[in-house]
Structure formats: structure tokens, C-alpha cells
Amino acid sequence: MSDHIVRLGTLDACSVSDALDRLGLPGAVIGIGPLTGPAKVAGRVVTVKLGAPLGGASTRHLGAGAIMAAEAGDIIVVEHCGRTDVSGWGGLLSRGAVRKGVAAVLVDGACRDIDESRELGLPIFAKAAVPVTARGRVAEHSFQEAISFGSVDVMPGDLVLADGSGVVFVSRRRAEEVIRTAEVIYQREQAMATAINRGDPIDEVMSAAYENMLKKER
């Protein structure tokens, strides 16, 4: 596991989102949450792009190629165009992912077999759960190519952190800068939490300095 992933895993989605704001970068995704219970995962992105059926008989079920391409600790990220009427991931895929050591699956849309994935211990982050199969309704257009996840452009090899607050992506090209900024923000907020716990007045702890700490340096 790379140093960047280890460091990202010590943070939370909020501090990373704040770092992205400070740096003027995209990365936070709205409306995706954990469906299998509380979880926090950080890892390298393996992408899947779904879309309308392509015509002709499919030779491989969607997601299978990404599972085969994944390494232990990777996170599979599925572009499903926000669809909640049909599944973009299911239980047999989760079994295969667990066998490969995949850390989690993120779906921009719905997925199914949530109970099975929970029993397998595979965190699933998505918009919704739905029983409707993808077969005949959705096809895989590509894997390990550029995708859109919500409003964020995601590349294979980018980093992602997902927890109870949501999902944030970090471009691998800006990983050091974003993580270093997030570490400063996280440590500062931990110090503020300690001050509140010891009884310092909250209006002093959360002063103008807190309100302005995400402004870009000039």
C-alpha cells in the first residue's frame, strides 16, 4: 500500500473535502453513502463505465474485468449515471471482489444484494439499493478508462476516501498536495475538538480564524 493511501486512510472525507476547497479542486461527490453499514475505506481507483445495452450478446458480465484488474486494497468505482431504477453491481460480483482483496465498491447509482455484500464484509457505497437486475438493461462500456462519478472526473489510479460523510476523490497527480493540506486541516480541527472537550468556550474556539481557514493563500 502506498504512503499516500496510508495517509489518506488516517483522515476523513470532511477534511479532504475541505482541502479540495482550499486548493480550488473538485473531488467531493454528493448523494453517495454506505449501504452495508458504517465503514471507512481509502484506496486506489479501478474504474467501470456502464451505459445502455450495446446490442449483441455480452461475453462478460459488467464489473468482471475490473475485478480481474484489481489488486488487493483497490476500490472499484462504477459510473452508473446516477440511475436508481436498475442495479449496477450485485452479490456474485461482490464475492469475486472479496476473493481479489478489493477494499470496497462505489456505485454512482443503485446496486443490489446488499445483504450478501454485508455478510461478505465488502463495503458498498451507492445511491440506493434495488432488486432489479442489470441483465438486458445495462451494459459495461469499458473498464480501467476515464469515467464520471457524479460531477467528478475520475481516472484509473486516482485515490478515493469514503466514509459515513460521503466520498472524495483525489487526483493521483495532486495527491501529495491535497493530502498534506488535509492533514493540516484535520490536525487543527482535532486540536479544536480537544479545546472544546476541556471546556473552552465554543465561540472562542470557532472564531473568525476557523471561518477563514479554507481561504486560498495569496
What does this molecule look like?
The chain is α/β, with parallel strands linked by helices and 218 residues long. It has a single domain, classed as 3-Layer(bba) Sandwich (Glucose Oxidase, domain 1). It is 33% helix and 28% strand. The protein contains eight helices and twelve strands. The chain has helices spanning 3-9, 13-23, 64-69, 91-100, 114-120, 175-197, 202-205, 208-211, and strands spanning 28-29, 33-34, 41-51, 75-87, 104-111, 124-126, 128-129, 139-143, 147-149, 152-154, 159-163, 166-170. Strands 1, 2, 3, 4, 5, 6, 7, 8, 11 and 12 form a ten-stranded mixed beta sheet that branches. Helix 5 links the parallel strand 5 and strand 6 (124-126). The longest helix is centred in the last third of the chain and has 23 residues, at 175-197. The relative contact order is 0.23. The model has no long low-confidence stretch (mean pLDDT 93).
Would you summarize the structure shown here?
The chain has 218 residues and is of the alpha/beta class. It has helices at 3-9, 13-23, 64-69, 91-100, 114-120, 175-197, 202-205, 208-211; strands at residues 28-29, 33-34, 41-51, 75-87, 104-111, 124-126, 128-129, 139-143, 147-149, 152-154, 159-163, 166-170. It has one domain: Ribonuclease E inhibitor RraA/RraA-like (Glucose Oxidase, domain 1, 3-Layer(bba) Sandwich), CATH 3.50.30.
